[in-house]
């Protein structure tokens, strides 16, 4: 499997784990855009949100819950943002679905 995040999940590329369970792995972004920037990925390879199938609905809900768990672990009680970039216009650069959890500073709106 040539997918970067599959290699991070299987441990062949090192990362800093923040949260993990049987369905997902969350790790620190290598190029943080905020004081806290964590990526939540499913262990199963799914290329993008748009590629998720109806059978993935429970897993997608689990990823959102895991994002909130990451925010609790990182003590982001003042607030945080969860982002999924999808496809080229959405700014997705790694084709393995991931939720960005960003916090530790106020977020502006709208995003660029
Ligand atoms: P996307 O642009 O696809 O929404 O997000 C991909 C994210 O993966 C980016 O924020 C980028 O900094 C992060 N990233 C890319 N390569 C690596 C890596 O090797 N390790 C880690 N921890 N993060 C990475
Ligand atoms: Zn993958």
Overview in brief:
The chain has 112 residues and is an alpha+beta fold.
If you had to describe this structure to a student in words, what would you say it looks like?
The protein has a single domain (4-103), classed as HIT family, subunit A (2-Layer Sandwich), CATH 3.30.428.10. Helices cover 25% and strands 22% of the residues. It has three helices and five strands; from the N terminus they run αβββαβαβ. The protein has helices spanning 4-10, 57-73, 87-90; strands at 17-20, 24-28, 36-42, 80-83, 99-103. Strands 1-2-3-5-4 form a five-stranded antiparallel β-sheet, with helices on one face. β1 (17-20) and β2 form a beta hairpin. The mean pLDDT is 97. The structure holds guanosine-5'-monophosphate and zinc ion. The site of guanosine-5'-monophosphate (5GP) has 13 residues, from β2. The site of guanosine-5'-monophosphate has 13 residues, from β2.
Question: What summary fits the major beta sheet?
Answer: 5 strands, antiparallel
Poorly predicted ranges (pLDDT <50, ≥5 residues)?
none
Write out the strand line-up for the largest beta sheet, numbering strands in chain order: 1-2-3-5-4
Oligomer: single chain
CATH architecture title = 2-Layer Sandwich
Tally of extended strands? 5
CATH superfamily: HIT-like
**Helix fraction bin:** 25-40%
What is the CATH first-level class name? Alpha Beta
The number of distinct helices, counting runs of at least 4 residues, comes to 3
SSE string, helices as H and strands as E: HEEEHEHE
> Bound small molecules, which ones?
guanosine-5'-monophosphate, zinc ion
Q: What share of residues are in beta strands? A: 15-25%
Rg over C-alpha atoms, rounded to the nearest angstrom: 13 Å
Distance between the termini: 32 Å
